[in-house]
Amino acid sequence: xxxxxxxxxxxxxxxxxxxxxxxxxxxxxxxxxxxxxxxxxxxxxxxxxxxxxxxxxxxxxxxxxxxxxxxxxxxxxxxxxxxxxxxxxxxxxxxxxxxxxxxxxxxxxxxxxxxxxxxxxxxxxxxxxxxxxxxxxxxxxxxxxxxxxxxxxxxxxxxxxxxxxxxxxxxxxxxxxxxxxxxxxxxxxxxxxxxxxxxxxxxxxxxxxxxxxxxxxxxxxxxxxxxxxxxxxxxxxxxxxxxxxxxxxxxxxxxxxxxxxxxxxxxxxxxxxxxxxxxxxxxxxxxxxxxxxxxxxxxxxxxxxxxxxxxxxxxxxxxxxxxxxxxxxxxxxxxxxxxxxxxxxxxxxxxxxxxxxxxxxxxxxxxxxxxxxxxxxxxxxxxxxxxxxxx
Length: 391
Ligand code: AMP
Fold this sequence. Notes:
Radius of gyration: 23 Å
Distance between the termini: 11 Å
Strand content: 15-25%
Number of domains: 2
Bound molecules: adenosine monophosphate
Number of helices: 13
């Protein structure tokens, strides 16, 4: 259920519309790498143009300290967008102040303007009301379509909504619908697969999903902390000592819902070329470390995934950047793609894995937001969503 107003609920004709998009894309030497987030913003941009709105896009990119960090300029992104849509795309070298005001004033219905990186102003991250007001002064309506930043209360995601009618774009709506439904009203059995490096990032998610999911399948580095909490020596495996008590508590409340790998791939170094072997889970020999889940675990987990009604996956099952330790992650990717379940993948690394495996088109929904999707799974209300007008 989506109870916020969207672009469909407001009159956009000949209006100036400020859209917060998530153009936080990988840039190398001024060239856009993965353009998923730009593509994902197009439906809203096209709809606004069809409505004859003047479209002003703003976003952050990376973590610049000041405007002098020009490698974080959005100009290359504006140029990239210019090639993607028939309309010509203008660029303003600041997101507020005289340059932005002039560019916004001159912008005509049916035209597109990209503003410079909002984080070139430190006020952005402080959700400074003055900055929010200045951004708002550029337009008549505010649209938030930046799911990837919706968990941050910043001037361009939350503050600006105090000064303009504020509604959701199609991407934000879609993300919230899929992730929200998975958590609140999933087709069962609801299976969550959690991996990645650290358990501490996902404690809140595990806690919340223990009350919602039917099974939680654990892999990746975070499994090691659970193993250690169970009393296994894990040798040189990545472990979070400070999370051991929490891991113990989760194992206790989780009971049979929380599943751990039954076998693992261990290596004699953290290296692509390391010596490696598969072993049933047990004490890890000195000098070795766990870098992937084993084949029996892939097979057990795959059976659970095949029976699922809903699957949510966040975090790789091993160090999949090294081919010898990628079998677990790709095995799970395969199982998720083959399953008839509603499948949702979030988090940068698992999304990268599913794309690498060429199975992305078999997934129901691939989220554009790592942190934001985790907060959804944790059951936290996203500030960027909360700030929008109710239906
Ligand atoms: P995250 O950003 O938390 O999803 O973590 C992703 C990273 O976890 C990937 O870069 C993996 O290489 C890493 N990872 C997965 N399994 C392990 C493991 N067993 N030991 C160390 N790192 C791991």
